[in-house]
Amino acid sequence: MKLAAACAIALVLGGAARAEDGDAAHATQAVLAAAASGAASAPADEPPSAPAANPAPSKKDPFESWNRSVFSFNEAVDTAVLKPVAQAYKDIVPEYVRTLIENVFGNVADAWSTVNHALQGKFESTLQMGMRVATNSVLGFGGLLDIGTEIGLEKQSEDFGQTLGSWGMPSGPYVMLPVLGPSTLRDTAALPVDMQASPTALIDDTRAKLIGVALMQAVSTRAGLLGASRVLDDVALDKYSFLRDAYLARRQNQVYDGNPPESPDEDEEAETDAPAAK
User: Fold this and answer.
1) Taking every pair of C-alpha atoms in the chain, what is the biggest distance, in angstroms?
2) Among 32, 43, 263, 268, fewest CB within 10 Å belongs to which?
3) 3-state secondary structure of 183
């Protein structure tokens, strides 16, 4: 039951974005930045070409045909269920109440981030995140208020997938999970551990309360992504590939703390791997 409830937490943007850090604003900003970059790079006098009906699989996405099918399913679930509920939640619930709810879920995520900072040997950030959690838990009335940010203890989110990456585990192929959305083989392997630190896993109570907490976090997270989804609908001709590339780039950036190593372009790799003409 805990696993099923935790799965509902990650149901954001119809599988378009997983909010690993518990902060939908970060994901929204990433999507907006990627959208602006893509729009700026497109020639003004040339319309973008339509995606191929049967795209050739790439090294980073060898399961693309299956992934696209799952993505379509996730989009349908989001359109039919989560997005309308999230919009109603945003329209009805006052902003300050939504902020209090987000802060509580964010404080739980910060506690798990602190553990992952420690597992990665980042002792300075472990201390800072530990102080942030303690401050928000005590002075912020259990995390309702984000006092930590106000006094300069900024959120530094980490999850177990990032920890595995810092230990040297490669990300593996891109995977689109039903309901849960974008992932990689490494992040999928880390999911059961991350779910044990979710708010639902920390509640030892009735099934109704577990489901209620899970749904509340899912709706709260999705409400924070409404702006990003509107931008995607406007600028992304092939939303699947746009989100895949944005997700992989963001995860690479997170694992390397904003300083990822340069990686060759796929076309360059193909040219390098191809045998020289005789």
Assistant:
1) 73
2) 43
3) strand
